[in-house]
TrEMBL record:
Domain RCK C-terminal residue range list: 137-218
SUPFAM superfamilies hit by this protein: NAD(P)-binding Rossmann-fold domains (SSF51735), TrkA C-terminal domain-like (SSF116726)
Stored Gene3D superfamilies: NAD(P)-binding Rossmann-like Domain, Regulator of K+ conductance, C-terminal domain
Protein name listed in UniProt: Trk system potassium uptake protein TrkA
InterPro entries: K_uptake_TrkA, NAD(P)-bd_dom_sf, RCK_C, RCK_C_sf, RCK_N, Trk_Ktr_HKT_K-transport
Recorded superkingdom: Bacteria
A GO term from the CC aspect: plasma membrane
Length: 224
């Protein structure tokens, strides 16, 4: 897979190193000569250019990319790169870094963003996930389809404890994607029984989150 990363700061270089280790082809773009440090990620391609300019993106051959990552420290730059990648080059997957939470609402499909990654939100979500049982925690937002990656740890005494996955009437536009049980990561099977303490990861429409939380936390005596 060919990936172009706009922004060769610490975040961009770290992502590039991970992708290269997984066997992908990576091109890093930055207009700041001090950030174009080939020796830091020697396996990557490098381009000293302004990723907000069409000529630069032509040189980067964005039309041959499967993924573009807008990883600069400037939200305006990340939005422009995302919009150009999607509208001018038809890049299938555009991931954008959100630096300031107040700007998060802009990072959607109107700006060409498929996945918005907000570092402050992610850090706070991971803190919540570590200490919360029975509370739905939003880990990531997917702009296409307005879906979110959410997590909930099934509390003691939940009505669904002991219920098989295939027997649960999940809310509409909701998919259980992973069960984390202790050190195990389980791909959900219809015959798997849920247990208290399971960390459940869902992709769900934002409009269904409240209903999903209610379903997972209701206790037997609360059922109608």
């Amino acid at each position: 897979m060919r990936v172009v990363i706009a922004g060769a700061g610490a975040v961009g270089r770290s992502v590039a190193a991970e992708l290269l280790e997984n066997g992908h082809e990576v091109l890093l773009i930055d207009r700041d000569p001090t950030k174009v440090s080939v020796e830091r990620v020697p396996e990557a391609e490098w381009l000293l250019a302004d990723a907000c300019e069409i000529t630069s993106l032509d040189e980067a051959a964005l039309e041959r990319c499967q993924v573009v990552i807008a990883a600069s420290g400037d939200d305006k730059v990340n939005l422009v790169v995302s919009l150009l990648a999607k509208t001018e080059y038809g890049v299938p997957r555009v991931v954008a870094r959100v630096n300031h939470p107040a700007n998060e609402w802009l990072f959607n499909d109107s700006w060409g963003v498929d996945v918005a990654v907000s570092t402050p939100r992610l850090m706070s979500a991971l803190v919540e996930e570590a200490v919360s049982v029975g509370d739905l925690v939003r880990l990531m937002r997917f702009s296409q389809g307005e879906a979110n990656l959410v997590e909930l740890t099934l509390p003691e005494g939940a009505a669904l404890a002991g219920t098989r996955v295939g027997e649960v009437a999940w809310p509409q536009d909701t998919a259980l994607v992973t069960i984390i049980r202790g050190s195990r990561v389980m791909v959900p099977d219809p015959d798997d029984a849920l247990a208290a303490g399971d960390e459940l990861l869902f992709v769900a429409a934002g409009s269904q989150e409240a209903e999903l939380e209610r379903l997972l936390t209701v206790r037997p005596q609360e059922q109608p």
